[in-house]
Automatic annotation (TrEMBL), chain A:
Family per similarity comment: Belongs to the UbiA prenyltransferase family.
PANTHER family, per database record: PROTOHEME IX FARNESYLTRANSFERASE, MITOCHONDRIAL
Membrane topology label: Multi-pass membrane protein
Organism for this UniProt entry: Umbra pygmaea (Eastern mudminnow)
Subcellular location: Mitochondrion membrane
Name the UniProt record assigns to this protein: Protoheme IX farnesyltransferase, mitochondrial
UniProtKB/TrEMBL annotation, chain B:
Keyword Protease: no
Location(s) in or outside the cell: Mitochondrion inner membrane
Protein family: Belongs to the COA8 family.
Keywords for the protein's UniProt record, in alphabetical order: Membrane, Mitochondrion, Mitochondrion inner membrane, Transit peptide
Keyword Mitochondrion: yes
Organism annotation: Umbra pygmaea (Eastern mudminnow)
Protein origin, superkingdom: Eukaryota
Main location: mitochondrion
Topology of the protein relative to the lipid bilayer: Peripheral membrane protein
Protein name: Apoptogenic protein 1, mitochondrial
């Protein structure tokens, strides 16, 4: 559900880097050099290779899947190309959200041509020429024949299309000579490659920590713990490091449980969305029972820790949050749009837990911090889901952005403005000093402005801008709240917490 | 080994016209193979090594994006194990059928929508440079909403069924694990 901005950038950076590399064209003989084959040379530069493959995969997917009815270029045996890339995807970094803008750009540039190219195949890079789209039926047939055995002709073909292939100085005679040669090799190589993609379903102990981290969505868990810590820090009591530590661990474990159960429920849906294709249960790295066992193993100690070592209210809130996330939010995602509101509530509870861990009571202040998270969730999620509408639709997820787009924009705007209102409540509830609404006004105004632009334009760019803004807006807001925290005097009359109000 | 291999291959390839497998890995045909092939025409034909004691999971299927699993059948399979294996295989096939249908329908309807929209506007499918025309995201959003609304009840039914099956499989796995543990414990006692 959450996504870091870096992952989107790598795709674009990777693409631009690899295109530049292609232009350099090291050691390019008279053969046309596909970017892919070049990248096989520079295989050592794994990060670029991965990101380009990632981008490549996106291109291929859009080209093949959405247009396979219309494209006649490739013969039905597309399994090889797909699985080839899938294999590489398996070895590559975690799937990220399809960057629709990039893909769309590529799609726009894609030209339908009868490009006959036998691409590079394993074991070594074999370069075969590209025929420019001139009417040369006699040459094309043998190559097409070669292509029809299901070689991954799509990928370089796609590459060619997108690179606006004009520099092919091909020589025709080489094609016919090489075609049968390549065909045999490809068959065997493809078979071997396809076989290699089958993995034995046994638990590798060495991989387990990584598997668990991904099962528990460790990054998201870390963010949840940070918000709980912020709630703890905002509580108007002396800071107790032991309770803080225990509450953080307990919250973290509870979040791990919730995330694991969520992944356990969503295996077939995750397989079909690009963002979530590489999750452990989808890949079969552990069995469903194992995942449930892990969830229980995290949940019981976590909740026990919260209830006994911190206080019962926090424990109860932790249990409630797990229940809301696994049994309400996860099924609701596919039933009705109210899932977003439940999800916002789920996000709001950890800071409340942090507060109650510190004070032991459910104060209005706790609800205030919770409402920061609640209001923030809407511009964050609505803008994110705006660009994922196709995936959600295909996967059967009922999100506002797909079914009620007008409401989606309204709600995002409304809650961005609500952030300003909630910030003003801070000093009224004695949580922060009066400097807080003033200091937070610029960032609140900025996010409201972006939400307003999103409301008016409702295009990809405005959605992305709003999303990226929400990513830094929340930490800034919490940090400002922390610095403007109302100072309390201890029993000896000393100031226990400082209010670092900037000199006005 | 060559003749046996080819016979085995021919048996399984009778169901569907797939390429002949000249792989070195072939050493045995699992009994579940023909059933699996009958149910999933496009699945890859892979035969795991004879001495493997585990299930094997393959790459995602082209149409359904789900990964096929070849279940290992142990020599002295208990009733419970057999029940679990059959349930998992059946669920896998059912899932595969649903998602294949879903993805293919989605793509077909999407293309049809694009074409019909372009026709309405009076624009050709491809522009001067031969590029395919696409609609912008706002226009496509109409289709996405329509698709979701149309398939609302189908999706809801699938969800219910999936949750039910998932629970059943996990419960069965749990029972099996408990059984095995108990057996091990009892044996150690003796």
């Amino acid at each position: 559900m959450y996504k870091t901005p870096c992952s989107r950038l790598t795709g674009l950076v990777g693409a631009s880097v690899s295109l530049n590399l292609k232009i350099l064209g090291k050691n390019a003989p008279r053969y046309y050099q596909s970017a892919r084959s070049f990248l096989q040379w520079s295989r050592k530069d794994k990060s670029q290779w991965i990101t380009y493959q990632h981008l490549n995969f996106l291109k291929r997917q859009y080209v093949l899947k959405s247009n396979n009815e219309l494209y006649q270029r490739v013969k039905p045996k597309q399994t090889a190309s797909v699985t080839l890339l899938e294999d590489q995807q398996d070895e590559s970094v975690v799937r990220q959200i399809q960057d629709e803008s990039v893909v769309r750009q590529i799609q726009d540039e894609s030209v339908v041509r009868q490009i006959q190219q036998v691409p590079t195949i394993e074991p070594g890079p074999v370069f075969v020429k590209v025929k420019p789209p001139l009417p040369q039926p006699d040459i094309s047939t043998p190559v097409l024949g070669a292509a029809s055995t299901g070689m991954p002709a799509d990928i370089p073909a796609v590459l060619e299309r997108t690179s606006g292939n004009t520099e092919s100085t091909s020589q025709t005679e080489a094609v016919t000579l090489e075609a049968p040669h390549v065909q045999l090799e490809t068959d065997e190589a493809r078979e071997a490659r396809l076989d290699r993609q089958w993995k034995e379903l046994k638990v590798e102990l060495a991989e387990l920590p990584d598997v668990y981290a991904r099962l528990a969505k460790i990054k998201l868990t870390a963010l949840v713990v940070v918000t709980a810590a912020a709630g703890f820090a905002m509580a108007p009591v002396p800071f107790d490091p032991v309770t803080f530590f225990l509450a953080s661990i307990g919250t973290g474990l509870a979040a791990c449980t919730a995330n694991s159960i969520n992944q356990y429920f969503e295996v077939p849906f995750d397989s079909n969305m690009n963002r979530t294709k590489n999750r452990p249960l989808v890949r079969g790295q552990i069995s469903p029972l194992h995942a449930v066992g892990f969830a229980v193993a995290c949940g019981i100690p976590g909740l026990t820790l919260l209830t006994l070592a911190v206080n019962p209210i926090t424990g109860a809130l932790g249990a409630l949050n797990i229940f809301l996330y696994t049994c309400c939010y996860t099924p609701l995602k596919r039933i009705s749009i109210t899932n977003t509101w439940v999800g916002a509530l789920v996000g709001a509870i950890p800071p409340i837990m942090g507060w109650t861990a510190a004070t032991g009571t459910l104060d209005p202040g706790a609800l205030l911090i919770g409402s920061f998270l609640y209001c923030w969730q809407f511009p964050h999620f609505n803008s994110l889901s705006w660009n994922l509408r196709e995936d959600y639709s295909r996967g059967g997820y009922r999100m506002m952005s797909v079914t009620h787009p007008a409401m989606c924009k309204r709600v995002a705007l409304r809650h961005s403005l609500g952030l300003m209102a909630v910030s003003t409540l801070g000093p009224m509830l004695d949580v922060t000093s009066w400097t807080f609404p003033l200091v937070s006004l610029p960032i609140n105004l900025y996010i409201s402005y972006l939400a307003f632009q999103f409301y008016r334009k409702a295009d990809r760019n405005s959605a992305r801008k709003l999303f990226f803004c929400s990513l830094w807006h929340l930490p800034m807001l919490l940090l400002l709240a922390l610095t403007c925290k109302k100072s309390r005097t201890g029993p000896e009359g000393t100031v226990t917490t400082q209010s670092l109000a900037p000199a006005a | 080994m060559g003749v046996k291999t080819i016979k085995c291959l021919l048996r399984s390839s009778v169901c569907h016209a797939m390429r002949l497998k000249l792989s070195m890995n072939v050493s045995r045909c699992s009994s579940s193979q023909p059933n699996k092939l009958e149910n999933s025409a496009k699945r890859l034909q892979f035969i795991p090594a004879a001495d493997s004691k585990h299930d094997w999971i393959g790459p995602p299927n082209r149409l359904s994006n789900l990964r096929p699993i070849i279940y290992h059948v142990p020599e002295n399979e208990t009733e419970l194990e057999k029940k679990l294996r059959i349930l998992r295989q059946e669920t896998e096939n059912w899932n595969h059928a649903f998602w294949t249908n879903q993805n293919v329908t989605f793509n077909n309807e999407k293309n049809y929508f694009i074409l019909s929209q372009l026709k309405e506007k009076g624009i050709t499918e491809r522009d001067e440079k031969g590029r395919k025309r696409t609609l912008n995201s706002e226009e496509m959003a109409v289709f996405y909403k329509h698709f979701l609304d149309e398939n609302c009840s189908r999706h809801a039914n699938y969800n219910k069924e999936w949750y039910r099956r998932n629970f059943a499989i996990t419960l069965l796995m749990g029972r099996l694990a408990f059984h095995n543990l108990w057996g091990m414990f009892a044996q150690r006692r003796r």
